Each structure stands twice: as structure tokens, then as C-alpha cells.
Please model this.
Amino acid sequence: MNDAGPVEIAFDDVCVLHRGRIPLLVSLPHDGSDIPADLRGRMTPASRSAPDTDWHVSRLYAFARDMGASMLVPRWSRYVIDLNRGEDDTSLYPGQNTTGLVPLVRFDGEPVYLPGMEPDAGEVAARIARYWRPYHQALRGELERLRAAHGRVLLWEGHSIRGSGLPFLFDGRLPDLNLGTASGASCAPQVQARVEAVLGRQAGYDWVANGRFKGGHITRHYGDPANGIDAVQLELSQRTYMDEASLAYDEVAATRLQPLLGTMLAAALAA
Model:
């Protein structure tokens, strides 16, 4: 079953679902950068601009909507709540530095909040209800719709990070493309193999599978290959499509990268 055309559905002011017609949902949980004014006033000056945003990823992946993919785009910054963490805030990478469901530190290890302004447990619970659950309601519902229509669905988690140096999170330079499948658990082996084959045939970017970033909560929680849901995360080093210093979108670099991303999506979708 295919829909006649694209549909946009707003989930309050939390996120917008661009509903497509093929069995592909591109989820961009860290694309949002807005911070409510009252919350921004409690943050350190360096945090108020939401520096750890996955900048421009909805623009980068706009071609996927032209392919017929569904896309889920949030409004709010991960500093409000991290949509790619579980409600219980269990660490995704035990023993390694990371940030939580409601981050108290930035990717550089410095505090998000002014002293004494951190949220308490009641505020965290309120943010889960206000921001986290609507996004996951939209995500779950679209996965179910696409699987019912097509018998299977690919969940593609689009992420990016400053790859040229974040010693709080990783040593040295992060590879250009970081594929995550929860060490093979979140998608069928042939899906991962086809995507890796695409990466192996190109020489423009270095890459790794299940390295420092193996997939976050969404990839790990929703990936269910035995029941027709394959989940793949791609963590891009931001240098591949933007200027990491100015945060400006680099049209030339992005245009160079997009065909490879499209080929990866097509390979993952192949029957």
C-alpha cells in the first residue's frame, strides 16, 4: 500500500513527521537546536547556542524525502532532552564518557548548567512526558505503519558529530562515516553486509562499522530484524558536509557526500 503523496504531521511542537511511501524512516533525533528561554537562562553562556547539535542533518538528508522516505525531525535541542537515550537513562557505553538523557555536561566535558541550576528528578520526569514521549510515539507509530504496508521497514538513524577532536568522548580523529548496528543485533546480517560493501567500494571517505559509536537507544531498542524492522545508525563526522569551526553548511561537500548516502540507503533497502 502506497500513499498518494507526502503528508506532514506535527506532534505538538515537539517534532514533525514527513510521512513517505517507501519502507524507510529516517530519524534525526539530534537535529533540533531550540532551547526554551527560561531553560536557556539557567545554562552556561557556552551552552546556550546548543553546540552539540547534529547540525544540518535534515538538510543533508532532504534527498531521502524525494526518494519517498518518511522523516522524523525534532524541534528541541538534546540539552532539553536527549531523544536517543532511554527513559531510564542507562548508559549506552559503560565505562566510557558519555552524556545522558538530560545532559549535565557537554561533549567537551564542561557543564551545561550554571551552578545550582541543574534539573531535579521532577523536572526530568516532566521533560520526558513533554518532549521525549511524543517523539517516540511518532517514531513507533510510523514504523508500525510502514511495516504493515510493506511487510518490512528500514529505520535509518542519521547523526553527526564534530569528528576532528572531542577528547572527552574519543581519542584522536573520528572516521568520516561510523556505521552502527549494535554490533550486528539491530539489523539482518545481509543489510549490514550490503551497506559495508558500498562503503568498501568507495575511496573518498574512511569508515568503520561498530567502532566508537555502535548505535544509540533508538537503534538498539527499535531494531528487530526477526520481525521486519532493520535499524542502522550512521554517525557522520561533520567535516564531511559542513565547516566544523563556523558551523556553516558546505554545499559543495554535502553535494559530494549525498550520492554515497543515497547508495547506502538503497543498498540497505534492497530485498
Q: What stands out?
A: The first strand starts at residue 7 and ends at 11. The chain has a mean pLDDT of 95. The longest helix spans residues 121-150.
